[in-house]
Amino acid sequence: MWQQNKRKSKIVFLWMMVILLIAFLGGCSWLMYKSQQEAPISEQAALDAEAEPAISSMEVSIVLKKSFVCGVESEEKLSQMVASTDQVIQDYQDWQLLSQEGNHFEFGKQVNDLAPICKEKGYFGLSKDGILTLYEGPPEEQKVIQTFFQINTKKLESALPMSELEFLQKGIRITDIAEYNSILSSYEEFANLTGNVKKKVEADEG
Predict the structure, then answer these.
(1) How far apart are CA 206 and CA 204, in angstroms?
(2) 110: nearest Cα among 147, 70, 62
(3) Does domain 116-200 have CATH number 3.40.50.1370?
(4) Which among 148, 144, 118, 117 has a CA at the least distance from the CA of 130?
């Protein structure tokens, strides 16, 4: 009886060893299969990463030029890092490209408004030659921004009160483009139309 039980125990032990061996071999086979499936994906990802071109950038110099109604021209200089020259054109698509030399760009824009200096210090007045002139500050300071046409003072005196001419000689302050256009249209009928010369003043903004 004891020998029979001992034989049965050996048989159970052998079966358990067989089951464990099968489980071990099965686990190893599954791990090997999974690693073989993942390896090509990882290798392909590494190849794709190497194939992607590196995003490079370059520095460009840009000049922005503005021309205002009152004759003032401003200029701003700046530098910018871009991926390509096409990006520069895209970034300043609202500007007109004036020139391009290598990494140097110049853009221009016509501004339908008065320049800041004209709004802050603009005066209409008469020069010694009777030319309607836009000044920076009162006419007596003689800081000319823009000249227009010669006024026929005799015609002006006969059509308007004498105080009107004195008012113009002392200087008429303007602060916006509406006042600017109003003064021009008011005195245009008294123009001799012989001195329609415009002088532009440059203002450096950068």
Answers:
(1) 6
(2) 70
(3) no
(4) 148
Least Cα distance to 157 among 126, 180, 134 occurs for 126
Q: Which residues touch 37 (CB under 8 Å, ≥6 apart)?
A: none
What's the pTM value of the predicted model, to 2 decimals?
A: 0.63
Measured distance CA(122)–CA(179) in Å, rounded: 10
Residues of each domain in the chain carrying CATH 3.10.20.420: 58-111
Which residues are CB-neighbours of 48 under 8 A, at least 6 positions away?
none
Q: pLDDT tens-digit profile of 153-202?
A: 888 888 877 778 888 889 999 999 999 999 999 899 888 865 444 444 44
CA neighbours within 13 Å on the CB side: how many for 152? 11
Domain 58-111 fold is: Ubiquitin-like (UB roll) (3.10.20)
Region(s) of the chain under CATH 3.30.70.1740: 116-200
Q: What is the CA radius of gyration of the chain?
A: 43
Estimate the share of the chain in helix, then strand, then coil, as percent rounded to the nearest 5. 45, 30, 25
State whether residue 199 is helix, strand or coil: coil
Give the three-class secondary structure for 67: strand
